[in-house]
Records
---
Amino acid sequence: MHILETIGAFILAIGILVLIHESGHFWVAKFMGVKVLKFSIGFGPALISRRWGKDRTEYVIAALPLGGYVKMLGEQAGEEVMPEDRTRTFEQLAPGKRFLIALAGPAANLLFAIIAYAGVAWIGIPGLAPIVGLVNDHSLAAQAHLQPGQRITSLNGQQVYTWEDMRMGLLSAAIARVPAHLETTEQGRLSTHTLPLQSLKADSVGPDFVGKIIGMEPYLPATVGAVEAKSPAAQAGLVAGDRITGINHHPVPSWESLARHIESHPDKTMEMTYRTAAGISKTIQIKPQMFLDKAGKAIGRIGIVMAPLPKDLIVIRQRGPLEGLIYGAHSTWQMSWMTVEMMVRMVQGFVSPDNISGPISIAEYAGQSAQAGVAPFLSFLALVSISLGVLNLLPIPILDGGHLVFYALEMVRGKPLSPAVVQKAQQIGIVLLLMLMSFAFYNDITRLMTP
């Protein structure tokens, strides 16, 4: 059922985004007076096909959902055109108008992202409170004197409401290679901290950037939610509601800290202190069972799961109609700029190419966000729509950006490029696109195989 839900969410998401993109081309072409022959969501054999309108445009839902296209009269050289339709062909348009038709697809994706992010702002999306739960020794966070229990309130002058706000702010600062100035509070005390992100090594920005590079994790209470039968935890007397406070005389500030202590002590007896739901402090001896992770490394497990987060750690912020639209526009601009900057930094070798995701990862994120609710799914759609819009604006032949270059050159030269040059450029574009897709698939498969 989970796999089916993931596939269903993926097809729904891709279908919506392709529909938005192709609708941009479609409506601007119609506005310019071009006759549209076919509007297809997907490629390959048609699952559903209907003809509507005075032009008898064919609307198709095809078998392969990874894309779509709008076929316009006169778009292909040598195409037969009836005398009454000669003024309605794509090729007879001025290059400036063809430029606008090509631009309309990516523009529609960015406009949709603004509306989707505005919807997220109006609905409100739950987020984890930006409280530091764990700081790794000798990490950037430790060098900046960040401490467990501190709540991050602002980053480079921008207010921080959730851990995701903080994560995206740090990622943006790292990509731009500027320091991150954090303000925190703890028990009424204000503190400032500076992370020298401008001095990070090349290829530093990648998956789990905050945990691995910055060296800190969010605060998740080390409270037991459930205990597996016959596990070391059950045999030691732990029950749901117990709060772990220490291991081997070391304090346990968060669930992440607890997990690391347990995983690093396979088959070794530990002294654990905890407080029961009734407030009684206890100390026990417990020996984690040894398991092998996907990489073959020995790790410890005691058979407990984390309790649901208390309400005071969940932050939900809703915005009004106008404020939501402003948020949508700002978020779309910020994510678009970050996407472009990340591509540039990737070429320079500063950002890890592991950040490139393919259909498998997108499908996983689609399923997870759909299960989380309407607002998370809208946020996911906005992010992928921005990626689709920006990617299509790249000056690669076969993509919209490549066509924009062709039409711009035609406007400058006063005549179109020769068919042979266009064909050769498109062949190069296909090769580049296949290389990018292959690398994205490689990253997806590597992630699946990595513990």
---
Amino acid sequence: MSHLPGFRPRNDGWTVVVPVKRYAVAKSRLASYAGPHRPGLARAMGLDTIAATLRSPAVAEVVIVTNDSDATHVLNDLGAIVVPDEPDLGLNQALVYGWLAARERRGRAPIAAMLADLPALRPDELAHALTLAADHQTSFVSDTPAVGTTLYCTMPGADFVPAFGGPSRLAHLSGGAVELDGTDIPTVRRDVDTEPDLREAALLGVGPHTREILAALETVHG
């Protein structure tokens, strides 16, 4: 893999790898609620998630893995490093590819993998989660229902074996990762796949892009 262009990262802090699915096919479970706004909603949630991640004081750099051309331009402008999803074999393979890119850029920095559908994410809560993660070689944060995973963290020298999708909490536990206390980080845990998830995220306070789409949806649903 050749050296990747992009912004010069700080010497300290985490690299966060975020996979971004093509907006045209993302968040299919929200189709019945969002209708024609679904691609825009997926885009908005991704923008709010990544903008919050870039503002987190624990984060030195964000690496995006995507084949969506719109995401590439917009997220580069935000300050993220964007690499193509060359494997194009699904979520976990994309994350491993992003991890390799991150390791090439920053040597032995700690690296985390995070989902792109955390529209209520707060930079300080992410920083708290990453601070907790620094005490373990491999760790993770479960989603709000404690079934899936939203954040998977590895320290330098640890194996990077993400197991996102389905009951990934158990998969990460079985792989030896430590589950981090999610008491004080509700916005790190609230991913969005369904309409009830979206409403819970809205109660936590979503970012401006998602808020704009929600306002448009409220005019449709009344």
---
Amino acid sequence: MKSDRLEIVFARNDGYLWGKNVPAVDLTLHSRQIQKWKSRQTARFLLTQLFEKYQLDLNLLNNIQKTATGRPFVADERIDFNISHSGDWVAVIFSYSEGKKAVGIDIEHPQKTRRYKALLDYYASETEKTYLLKDPAKLVEHFYLSWCLREAILKSQGVGMVKLREVCHSPIQKAIACEYCPTGTLHFFSQFPFYLCYFFEGSAVPEISQYHQGNLQKIEKILPLVYQVN
């Protein structure tokens, strides 16, 4: 397999993806617990698809470990991955390279109105807020840009969201600075039924696909907002 491969795959957490391969869900669970369970199964399914695509050892997925901060990883120094889920959607970012390259991802499927300005007041600088709040028609998109990029950056190193304020976002310069992340690139998409943001270290060219109707269907001609990190 060629080195420096980078893939982002997303899918709905529909049972048809994985229903024949896992035990039946306990229907006494709360609906929110069932949703999380379905998302975990979907993430595992997507990772399996990627491992099979690149002929990697599936036993690695049976022995997923966690760092001290709870970030999952496998015992192969060529592989890094990260998972995110929101609502009915699940996204996985997968990196394969000679010398592990860090990745992080966040997907947000808004299902309710949030206190956007209050949240921005909590973690954003005055300069960032001035830009994000200047156009009320774009408030929701701008909020999720600022939120998702922080999630993706911090998740690349398994750092908790308590460090939100320590991510410096310069929306005009399209630049991000954070001591909890290596130098790299960040992409943000608002064109899907959800907001998608991912960070990657290195120079690999990302390939984005949706798992739909039994296949990985490559997404083309949809361009992201691009940020340089550190």
---
Amino acid sequence: MLRLVLLVIVFLLSLLALFRAPTYHLWLTAIVVTEFPVIGITITTGLLLWGYKVDKYVLPGTIIGVVALLMFISPIVRIMMLSSTLKQEMNVALGAVDNTTSEPPFSISKMITGLGEKQLESTTHFYDGRLTLDFYKSQKSGNKPCVIVVHGGSWAGGDSKQLPELNTVLANEGYHVASINYRLAPDVKSPAQVEDVAKAMHYLRQHAGELNIDTTQFVLLGRSAGAQITLVAAYTFHDPSIKGVVSFYGPADMIWGYSLPANKLVFDSRKVMVDYLGGTYEEVPQQYFNSSAIEFVTPRSPATLLVHGPIDPLVHYDHSTRLSAKLTKNHVPYYFLSLPCGTHGCDYTLNGPSGQMTTYSVLRFLKSVCK
């Protein structure tokens, strides 16, 4: 009986590989299920093997366990299928590049061997009063492009130390990385956060000589709330030095997003919008318009990389599909990495199925926009 109960529990958890999490804590669990699938596979296999005693519960438990095992395996299989066409699709969307790396977009072995990789140290710079940025110096000599990273956290939390592993990868590949802090809501309302990106860029230009930055090549990269900030900045600054923008599961249409809020058991999206923008849509409609990147796409907008998954329970997947349609309409070069098992925070580990795909795509995107 105990075996059956445990197999039913793992079966219910395995559903998080296919469906949006219904509560906040199950969303966190979904990251483990989808990005650390070896854990679920190992536990389920162990419970299935624990079936040596024949009783009336063995067969139903085994059936449930096999189904759970297949669902835990599904993120790996689906990412393998996606990775087989990724290079070709990005070549079509962004143009072919000299891709000197022979590493595939996804490797099963890297899910284990990639753990514990050494991270680079950053230096702290004050770019506007008490605001700081963490600077990761390119590990290749000469003036290099700079990637400005803007953290997530519902515009009210998070900091520049968030998910630093990608910063090391980019620096090792020859890009400077400036991971910035910005003023937070509810104390400071939009568009102050977008203005902070401009201030950080100004600082980096002023100190380009000592930091060896190629000031003609910046790329903005943001996660979640940070993606909203970077998208608006990229599409409204009209700065030719911004060669591209990367959005990890970002809210691109704040007006539409307010009309279709997230499940409150997971995330009170309307409350964080109100705190960030200073009121409801009915109270400050212009604020919602001004913070909707989709409203500012033009044929001159910089190349864009979108990363999102349909099981994201915090920022609806349609934010990215709607922006994708607008980019297509305006003939802006872009690639939409739609991750079948990607939940919010799918890049928590760069070694997971979605994490490997996002890392490959970002590096491939940077090669296409930074010459």
